[in-house]
Amino acid sequence: MFGAGTTAVVTGGSSGIGAATAERLAGRGCDVLAVGRDTDALADIARRTGARCCAADLTSPGAADRVLAEAGEVDLLVCNAGVGWSGPLEVMPEERVGDLVRVNLLAPMLLVRAALPGMLARGRGQIVLVSSIAGSMSVAGEAVYSATKAGLDALGASVRGEVAGRGVGVTIVVPGVVDTPFFARRGSPYARRVPRPVPPERVAAALVAAAERNRSQVFVPRWLRLPARLRGVAPTVTDALQRRTT
Ligand SMILES: NC(=O)c1ccc[n+]([C@@H]2O[C@H](COP(=O)([O-])OP(=O)(O)OC[C@H]3O[C@@H](n4cnc5c(N)ncnc54)[C@H](OP(=O)(O)O)[C@@H]3O)[C@@H](O)[C@H]2O)c1
């Protein structure tokens, strides 16, 4: 479905999950616009995969409209760019709170809002939001990150209801821990015993497959849907389990 003759926008296409997704889609003949700020990394992706590149800071005003104008008619919008921060909320710098909200939540809201009119007019399109197990489990020490990802889950579910029956689908991808520069960039390594990191290529494969089937939600690895469901009915149990695995 997402091959020759289709166009995809992948934010965070310069690194990790986004780079693996851009590579997977481009390898199938899809016209991919990889979005990020690191122009060297983007140029490398373009060289290796043939993807087009768009240097953009998604927190800057008007970025969503500029990205979509550069892409043309978009069949698949992957909102994947994200940043983390780890530590107690009371010592989190205000600037970092704003960064996380702007990159992880506000940017996807504006991108989806900008992409929908064209998708709805054409009667086709798929939106993918890359969330996190932190959004489902509400991780201590990642309060703002967890809140942005829970917000992304709510955004996706709400928009899915708004576009139902109009040819546009919404898929939420929920990775556990992925072996990318994410932890180095947030300034603290991954410190839990479980879940174990998976390669970004595995998330990319699950993302593309779920988008093609218009799945509403996919966990990577799949077993993570069990603690996420359990938290919905017994949060004190899963909170205690989380403390034991830290
Ligand atoms: N790694 C994990 O364990 C994990 C687990 C669950 C969910 N996730 C989620 O997966 C997504 C991808 O993360 P990753 O692991 O692949 O991390 P990553 O390798 O650090 O990639 C993050 C991407 O986001 C882009 N980005 C950050 N701020 C941006 C901004 N202001 N404007 C434009 N692009 C920006 C970066 O591009 P530039 O550097 O070019 O700006 C980079 O391409 C994120 O949403 C993350 O929350 C990750």
Automatic annotation (TrEMBL):
<protein>
    <submittedName>
        <fullName>SDR family NAD(P)-dependent oxidoreductase</fullName>
    </submittedName>
</protein>
<dbReference type="InterPro" id="IPR002347">
    <property type="entry name" value="SDR_fam"/>
</dbReference>
<keyword id="KW-0560">Oxidoreductase</keyword>
<dbReference type="InterPro" id="IPR020904">
    <property type="entry name" value="Sc_DH/Rdtase_CS"/>
</dbReference>
<dbReference type="Pfam" id="PF00106">
    <property type="entry name" value="adh_short"/>
</dbReference>
<dbReference type="GO" id="GO:0016491">
    <property type="term" value="F:oxidoreductase activity"/>
</dbReference>
<dbReference type="InterPro" id="IPR036291">
    <property type="entry name" value="NAD(P)-bd_dom_sf"/>
</dbReference>
<comment type="similarity">
    <text>Belongs to the short-chain dehydrogenases/reductases (SDR) family.</text>
</comment>
<dbReference type="GO" id="GO:0016020">
    <property type="term" value="C:membrane"/>
</dbReference>
